[in-house]
Design brief:
This protein is α/β, with parallel strands linked by helices. It has 2 domains: about 250 residues, Rossmann fold (3-Layer(aba) Sandwich); about 190 residues, 3-Layer(aba) Sandwich (Rossmann fold). The strands form 5 sheets. The chain has a 6-stranded parallel sheet, sandwiched between helices. Bound molecules: adenosine-5'-diphosphate and alpha-D-glucopyranose. Adenosine-5'-diphosphate binds next to α1, β14, β15 and α12.
Length: about 475
Amino acid sequence: MVVPEARPFAKTGGLADVSGALPQALARLGHRVTLVMPRYRGIEPAPDDTRTPFDLAIGPQHQPIEFVERRIGKGLRAIFVDAPSLFDRPGLYGVGNEDFADNWYRFAVLSLAALERARSEGKAPSAIHAHDWQAGLVPVYLQTRFAADPVLAGVPSIFTIHNLAFQGLFAPSILPLLGLGWELMHVDALEFWGKVSYLKGGINFSRKITTVSPTYAREILTPELGFGFDGVLARRAADLVGILNGIDTDAWNPETDPYLPEPFSASRMDGKRTAKRELLETLGLGVDNASMTRPLIGLVSRLTDQKGFDLIESAAERLMALDASWAMLGSGEPRYERFWTALAALHRGRVGVKIGFDERLAHLTGGGSDLFLMPSRFEPCGLNQMYSLRYGTLPIVRATGGLDDTVLDADEGGAKGTGFKFRDYSPDALVEAVARALAAYREPRRWRALQRTAMRQDHSWDVSAREYVKVYREAGRKRH
Ligand code: ADP
Ligand code: GLC
């Protein structure tokens, strides 16, 4: 499995949660998994690591690298591609909102190195699974450079799209530097509007394509959410499947979460109040009786248009008129950082904001809030709504992608309801959904029933991991 980030080693978003948990779930099913990713800054050597130097021939260059192999558990190992000049940097993909200019090279090295390593072990893996554009060249190299390789020829590749908005677009002049032929500068290969797209490579050269929810798998075939790739994907629709992400039920468990002040569960909810108090304190909001009883709406997010922050901005005045407090943890586009900082100053005591990336506070916000808001414009899967369900924090979501697949509206779903959903990407629809959620909060018995249903939802990885195994097997049977 080739990934650009994985928990607990390096994380910027949900992909790291998935590539941390899926290999473990596969290993629990009895499979042997090798996770290949860069050795970023902060991934420190461990005593039992084994290091193997390797001279990676890429285009006209020789890139010296080292493979750092680490056993993680039964059936599971990580191989870190160590090349300090490429990966020992202050960020994974860039600094601030600026991407590194050589990302095309850094992730070509990752992809090629993964294949060279598999080859040098002399035994073909039964499948190679690459994630997102950063690993998009894995299927490409497999079908070109290694097409006749005694070890790797015929090995099926699977490509997973976590977010179609990130396409890995670069100037065509990189092709010779990657050791790839000009014939790949073709609409059926890597060419995308005059550029080279690693995402397109992953889509066109893999045997099977997956994405992270059934609804998103349908949405990306439409012009609205296809980001220019709907046609490309439509041609491969027979090989495209949506598999809903699971969640790591050990890392996100209110009964054992080390980031919570007190454990809680569906039958013993006192700890949730303690978490709310701690969250309010952490964000400098009052903990008097009125603040404790007022419903608290949490957000933990990258601050981008994808996540619906423009919608929140348009609706802000009306949202602030509702009787609720807000806890927002996030970082991203400076305009949204400024907006939330200003909002907190304007509504002191009722809006608490922390700009940054903070794992402890992410757990505390999920656990200590009453409601959790995700008004995404599009959402391939989304994980926070599933974490929230587990903590009895009812999600308010826009009905898109995985949000639509994982939340059932309380006013439509009756006894099965787990949250609040709206469809239109409009301030009106957002405000209406938040108001409905707040009305439900004022009915304690109904609220408790909704919380109990939410906390009973099973989004553990086992089911989804089995679906991936099915896809690996199908890919093995199929010739591209
Ligand atoms: P995406 O990958 O699109 O950002 P997901 O919902 O799939 O969205 O996953 C986001 C992950 O990143 C979750 O685990 C969430 O808790 C975490 N996260 C997002 N923003 C922050 C933040 N500011 N601090 C800590 N964790 C964050
Ligand atoms: C992407 C998507 C998010 C998804 C995550 C993990 O970051 O934006 O919706 O949950 O990948 O698959």
